[in-house]
Amino acid sequence: MKSPQRILAALAAACCVSLAAHADCVLPPAPSKIPDGKTASKEEMNTALETMKEYNSDVETYLKCLDFEARQHHLSTSEQDSRHNSAVDTLQKIANKFNEQVRNYNKAKNG
């Protein structure tokens, strides 16, 4: 027969593993600065492009996390939809701003 201390220790360990596996999905922060395409250097625009690619990847990971949490019943479908839509809307707004600055950069460089 197992001692009560061993049983409690096993339950505590199982609880900790369960809590560690259930991490909240964290929305990645949007890029804080998009360079002005009229005055930015090629290097600044390339750095911004890499930042946008990373942000896009981070949002995709976030959306996968939301999907996983919903499948595990840790997140309601309506909450998943709300968070998903908010993240995609923010990504689209940032992408639109960046694309506008790319157009401005191309106009400034090419006349």
Description:
- Helix 2 packs antiparallel against helix 3 (77-110).
- Helix content is 74%, strand content 0%.
- The chain is elongated.
- Residues 14-22 have low confidence and may be disordered.
- The chain has 111 residues and is mostly helical.
- The relative contact order is 0.15.
- It is built from 3 helices and no strands.
- It has one domain (26-110).
Keywords:
111 residues; 3 helices; mainly alpha
Give a short overview.
With 111 residues, the chain is an all-alpha fold. The protein is built from 3 helices and no strands.
Domain count, please report it.
1
Order of helices and strands: HHH
> What is the CA-atom radius of gyration, in angstroms?
22 Å
**Helix and strand composition category:** mainly alpha
- Arithmetic mean pLDDT: 86
Helix content: over 70%
Largest sheet features: none
What's the count of strands? 0
* Poorly predicted parts: 14-22
Topology at a glance:
Blueprint: H1 4-21, H2 42-71, H3 77-110
